[in-house]
Amino acid sequence: MKKEQIEQLVNEGKMLPLMEEFYTIQGEGYHKGTAAYFIRIGGCDVGCHWCDVKESWDAEKHPPTVTEKIVDNATKYSDTVVITGGEPLTWDMTELTTQLKAKGAKLHIETSGAYQLSGVWDWICLSPKKLKLPTQEVYDKANELKVIVFNKHDLKFAEEQAAKVNKDCILYLQPEWSVRNKIIPLIVDYVMQNPKWKVSLQTHKYLNIP
Prior knowledge:
Layout: H1 3-11, E1 15-25, E2 35-41, E3 64-66, H2 67-74, E4 80-84, H3 94-102, E5 106-111, E6 123-126, H4 136-141, E7 144-149, H5 153-162, E8 170-175, H6 180-193, E9 197-199, H7 203-207
């Protein structure tokens, strides 16, 4: 297949730059502790300095994979499928989610919300980043807000973001892993003073699983 044809299929969402896919336990947020199949799509220009999957940023490093093949792999394992990245909304998620839905999957997305919302979702986990703020549609539709806390200034950012999401959105503060020992006491104290927030931990890292 010619490069131009592949690029066209990627633009249409019929192929996607697949970085990895795996069956594991959801480690974070509202659905932590539950089995799910993860699809990690390459490509992200949000550029968080503390990102723990920086190898996902360059979409060129991840082979365009036929969406139908991704769907077939995912539905062998679990009826809950989590689309993550990178930033999955860099790409049109309509084709992927339509095919997964047709096979009865429950669909979750983990996104910074920086790009237009595409696809059909049962659960939207919004993790906003300062460099590229979410679109209003993602604020309006987010089921959970997960703010990563690297320093105390991120708590102010968290409150700014909480003011923009819908009233039913569940609010989480999650320590950035590399500074967790310093940040966890700060978050615990903050949540006790502001109980609208909950603590999210990367429990998969404590469990030593993907």
